[in-house]
Amino acid sequence: MRVDGHNTHLSHRGRRLTVHRGSASAGRGRPPGTGRRLGPAHSYDYAMIDVDVRHLESFIAVAQELNITRAAARVHLTQQAVSGHIQQLERALKVTLLVRTHRGVLLTAAGDELAAGGKAVVAELAELVERVQQVARRQTGSLRLACCPYATSLFAGEVADAMEAAVPGLAVELTTVRTPREELELLEAGSADAAFMWLPVGDTGLRHAVVRTDGRAVAVSRDHRLAGRDRVELADLADEPVVRPDVFASADTERHWMADPRPDGAPAPRGPVVAQIEDALLTVARGRAVWLAPEPLGRWAPPANVRWLAVADAEPSELALVWTEQAPEPLIARLIAEVRAVVDRSAESPPAPA
Q1: Which CATH number among 3.40.50.510, 3.40.190.10, 3.40.640.10, 3.30.1360.200 corresponds to the domain 216-315?
Q2: What is the rounded CA–CA span in Å between residue 269 and residue 285?
Q3: Torsion angle, CA of 317/321/324/329, rounded to 10 degrees?
Q4: pLDDT of 195-228, one tens digit each?
Q5: Diameter of the chain measured on Cα atoms
Q6: Is 33 left (phi over 0), alpha (psi -120 to 50) or beta?
Q7: Beta strands 141-147; 194-198: pairing state
Q8: CATH of 141-212+319-347, one of 3.30.70.260, 3.40.50.300, 1.10.10.10, 3.40.190.10
């Protein structure tokens, strides 16, 4: 396409077209649309021109009707709006596109050129939009998502509903397992596409994206010496054995949960090993140990016989969406966005730790 004697090409950017425009001058390059390289006495300087698609649509209507009143009715705008679009388009392109007469308008040579090429550009953009929407509509089928109740019970159902609403025809299958280790087994066996897991997950080769950062809390028994406080530091727990649920996917994960080593370099005191998360809470309630965990577990675990206290200086825990290389990446990308939206909404009024 040529506009006002200069070679140009247009790229789509939302409802605007970015016109890459060239002009010959001394030194370098090849103008787009030409088949020859300029000699050493020439070069090509590029400028960017933004063309609003609405302005182009208004101009095409005027070019076809040769009358601003009829063109305005055709595009459902006022005459003033259409005239304004033409003026803005002329300023953007730095050309005169039409002249007004007592009968209507006449196109200049530049206007004739833009009318000829502009209609194809608008039609191409409309077809591109339709193709993109069709691709989005074709993202149907199923997405298999594994989760542990204590990690995601506060939002997993909401996320699944949001995904199914966003992608018509998609079915999100939620599979609940008891431990992060079981989540990894499902992913490695190809029985799940993605899972919610707190980092780190070890050297698994899986991909991940952080969706939430959680503070840390410690569970103590109701009659513990610290039970009357709302907040503690790791130094307050220096001599407290930490119960260790045998559920973690890696030794790195266990060390993170135990805050091992402590800020002063000392190892975390190791308490009893238990089989399940529920057993950890029973051990704490009986006064045999304390348990360090991400803060949301204080909302998942009813504090009947334990107290949850914020740990001010413990490293935060990162909850991530973890997925395999075989997972459908467009759906994973949309899932990440939906999870973060749900998390952002819930963060507006977080419940206080018990």
Answers
A1: 3.40.190.10
A2: 18
A3: -150
A4: 999 899 887 889 999 999 999 999 999 999 999 9
A5: 96
A6: left
A7: parallel
A8: 3.40.190.10
